Structure formats: structure tokens, C-alpha cells
Amino acid sequence: MKRSSYIIMAAVVVLFALSWIFKAMALDGETEHYITRAFLVTFSAFLTLAVLSFLYRDNPFYKFAEHLFVGISAAFWMCVGFWTTIVQNLIPRLSQPLSEFFEVPYIGGSFSIRFYLPVILGILLLLRLSRKVGWLSRWPLAFIVGTTAGLNFVRYLRSDFIQQISSTFVPLLGTRWEGFGHFFSHLDLSATGQLSMILANWVIFLGVFCGLIYFYFSKEHTGVFGKASRVGIWVLMFTFGASFGYTVMGRISLLVGRITFLFKDWLGLIS
After folding, report:
1. pLDDT in tens, 193-205
2. Which of 15, 139, 195, 214 is most buried, judged by most C-beta within 10 A?
3. CA-to-CA distance for 61 and 46, rounded, in angstroms?
């Protein structure tokens, strides 16, 4: 390491220690374990700043926070999988002493092939740790990937394909259409009124129709067909922009949460 790296590392350690001390002094009297609480707040602030330091450039502090997050996440989900899958499903059907040790009700007598197969695949998956027989782990991995892809294909087919298509079959004159006389005599300009619903349904219908025309390449996009295709482009751009904006707003809310934590819980500058 360069000399400047040692200086930066020492400065960060000193600032961390000072922040821990001042935060513990601020929390003294508010909670019984104020020293531990001050360390957790300070460490959380350090990790937050370490992640944000990537905006400047890649650095060891960001890598430390990244590796710590990935490692803790992997360990957490491994523990969740152990207690929810092995302890809750396998052990009660495998052994009564083990069930009593883990304090789960013993089932017994129902350990069929549908329980043996996951156990075998799980053991084969752990063979990844061996260099000689590690190739056997490819079979359970392929089974997991294939099964997950098949299940998600059906789920996404229902939610993102069939449901999206059925949502475009909207009544162009609204669900409460009783004729033009009733429509004009009960004209309502509110957002939930019949006029607004009719306009919204027409926007959905025309937007989907023009969007499909844009992807129809068997005919040259000229004349009325070309104008409808250009309208479809605008519809797609509005859709992508709204989706991107929704994603950005979600990330901004996370950023606001971390900034609030830094200025409120750590520095105490806002109440």
C-alpha cells in the first residue's frame, strides 16, 4: 500500500473512534446499552458513507461494504433456508431425537420420495466444494434452474401476458353506458366520472393499437399506417419513461432514507 493509503486509513479509524465516543456521550442516559447503540449507529453511518464513496471512484472502503453486505446476505438466507427447509420439513420426518433437539413436532411415517429427492440434490449441490467430484453439482444446479424457469414462465405468462392482454379489453363507452341522453344529462367531469373513464379507455385502446402497429414490419410505415406507428413510438417512450421514473423515485426514496439517517440518527442535526 502507498503511504497516502495508510494515512487515509488511519484518519478513517480516528474519525470512527471519535464519532463512536461522541455518539455514546450523546446517548448516555437515553438507553441502557448506549455504548453498543452508539457503535451500531456509527458503523451504519460508516457503511453508508463507504457505499456513497463509490460516486467518487472505486476504493477499498466501498469494496469492504460491498463484500460485507453480500456475505451477510448470503449467510442470512442460508440460515433462513436451514431453519425453514431442513428443520421445519426434513428433520420432523427423519428422526424423532433430532425433532426433540430442534423442538419441532415429529411427524414420522410420511418420508416419501418427494422428500428423498431434495435431500439427494442438496447433498450433490454441496459437492461443489470438492475439486474431484465437483462436476456432480451441475446436475442439481441444472434441475434448480430448469424448475425455476418453468415455474416462473407460467407465473409471468399469467401476470405479464394474459393479464396484460385482458386489461386492454375495456369498454370504449364505459361500464355505465345508458345512452347519449343519460350521458349528457348526468355529465360528470370528475376523475371518477363516466367521461373520464371513457377517455381513459380510449387512450388505452389507441395506445395499445398504435404500439402494436409499430411492431408490424410486414407493411411499410407510410401514410396513415406510418402516423399510427409514430404514435406508437410516443406511447412506448411515455411507458418506458414512466417505468424509469418510477424506478428512479424508488432509488431516491432509499437515498432520502439514508440521508435522513445520517443527519438525524448519526449527527443529530435534525429532529
Report:
1. 788 888 988 999 9
2. 214
3. 9
